[in-house]
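Figure 2 data, in text form.
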Amino acid sequence: MADLPANALREVVSLDGIWNFALAASPNLNDDPAWTRTLPSTLQAPVPASYNDIFTEREIQKHVGWVFYQRSVTLPFSWRDNLVIIRVGAATHRGRVYVNDTFVVEHHGGYMPFEADITSIIQPGETFRLTIAVNNELTWETVPPGEIEVAADGTRKQIVRHDFFNYSGLHRSVQLCCVPKNHITDVRVVTDVINSGKTGTVEYQVTTTQLARSNNRVKVALVDEAGSTVAEAMGAQGTLTVDSVQLWQPGAAYLYHLHVRLFPSAVPIAADEYKVNVGIRTVKVVGRQIHINEKPFYFTGFGKHEDYPVRGKGHDAAFMVHDYQLLKWMGANSFRTSHYPYDEAWLDYADRHGVVVINETPAVGMNLAIMAGWHGKAHKPTFSPDTCSDVTRKNHEHALRELIQRDKNHPCVVMWVIANEPSSHEETSRQYFEPLTVLARELDPTRPIGYANEKQAGPKEDKIIDLFDVICLNRYYGWYIFTGDLSGAEKGLEAELREWEAMYGKPIIMTEYGADTLAGLHTVGDVPWTEDYQMTHRVFDRIGSVVGEHVWNFADFQTPTDFILRIDGNKKGVFTRDRKPKAAARTLRKRWLDLQNRLDRTSR
């Protein structure tokens, strides 16, 4: 599914702003059909934003189940000869859309857009009631998984298996879109570099409506940043060749634009058009390295969250640009979309500015062994008919399909991460994950795949690492392991990394490492929770297979408020939640800028 940008032949109206809001009276949606009536404006909520922290009432923050967003929308009369599409950027974790009393679409999964054609149920010039029901429930069948506890008095509590707050709501923009009846539905591009880096190729495939396939023509043109056409062709698929190509490079992005136009037969005026940004580059795993454009790449940066004070996971362009500016200031060249796909605006910006992205599915919390291990207790198998089952895997497959379908054309995306910290030391994990790795390679054979490994699945215990191209390790030596003992932590980390290197010979990215820090807390020596307690990078520099370091986390973030091990959220951020730097920021900044200067000198 392509997005629906405005252009000469398409119009988009933003429905962002203030909507009427209400909690559902019952867990059963049909017991309270709010879409059949006009909601009062007594309670209103902003879109996009999480609803949890907007209000002061605890019952809203802790609500488990359905909520309703509603507003009136007027369909422009000028749209009468086109299709009318409603597009929801994200409804976390389940959304249902109603136009007046009519149900039009349902979507499962909280971090991907969905849309519906509503042309047949509204009239041009009509004002209609738009209601979006949003559900935040997580079960063993959802991705991410969770459980719901029901107390004797009927109170419902959401149990999450992941370490971040289960924010819910309309987290991304809602749009009303006008699209030609005869239109382009998708464009796929795959780039390559040949002739010793002098020539680029762009393989393209255009999908159109059923009507368009039989009697229409597709014309494509590749335009450079100066506005000059460098290659063009006719047909819905083909390969364009670019001589003296300008490559998309980390830190030095160059974007071509693939301009696709759809013509009815023998008619010189386009019925539809669509533009795709194209960064010509290659990504390959070569031995123990990851190459971008045939050169080794070393990742520096963070795992992040879409998490901000007050608005929760709601997308905010100002916060996004500020975060990117802080990444640049730090000397970071990359980040991971932990632990779910971000708003596509994040990838558009990374494409434009040469930031490298590791893109992740929302599969987090698939590990019953973590908490059981902390408390020395036995646990149920994580992958079984009663826990993460075949149904869960089907939903996981759906999430993977949506992720790759949406983000396949972004040059900034260099790797897909299929899951974060699953219980990969369990025998049944292979049966669960092997089909997912096969699917990922079928959907996109051009990018490597990985998963973030948790400590209990060491090099000898892990059951699935051979299915992946890159070893991604989340390790907290000196924090959860060798707590307060940096000398022991350094030795332990090096011993484990050398074991991974010797056994598998694959690139290793430290996708998480770090320590909780309370801003302003200082001591003379290295004491956990203080700003003076910092981890060493000497081990990374001694291990040839280590090709990247992503600190956990970019900024402090909110976690479940009933989790006693967290103090107003997770404090592993290098920045506070409101983006103030902690002491570790300058240490990292110096390291990463020095690394970049050294790598620049080496590549000359």
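Caption note: The chain has three domains: 17-172, 184-278, 300-603.
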